[in-house]
Amino acid sequence: KFIKHKHIDNLLWLTADVHYAAAHFYDPAKAQSKDFTPFWEFVAGPLNAGSFGLNTTDGTFGPQVVFSKAPPTGQVNLSPYAGLQFFGEVNIDKHSQALTVDLKDINGAVVFSKTLPAVK
What we know:
Radius of gyration: 16 Å
Distance between the termini: 20 Å
Low-confidence stretches: none
Number of helices: 1
Strand content: 35-45%
Largest sheet: 4 strands, mixed
């Protein structure tokens, strides 16, 4: 509510120390709590630890799972050799000020990418 009412723009959340990769879009039109500005959350990491699956999402902020890559249901604490280790890279274009988030696997291959234009 504070962020919306103070007109704080270009906000996103980068989340780490989870054991999968995901991109979530939070939408007030689909949320229990309506008084906020839509935002993105990008999830990755850790790069070298056991993999776990997604948790259930809380409907307070209307999360939409736009992308996720995690072990199949019932498989937990998988070795890094299972290939489900991730990290993120964020770049901002110096001309347009657009922000691009790339979620990458342990080999550096992009598994998800999203470019967000700067709000001016």
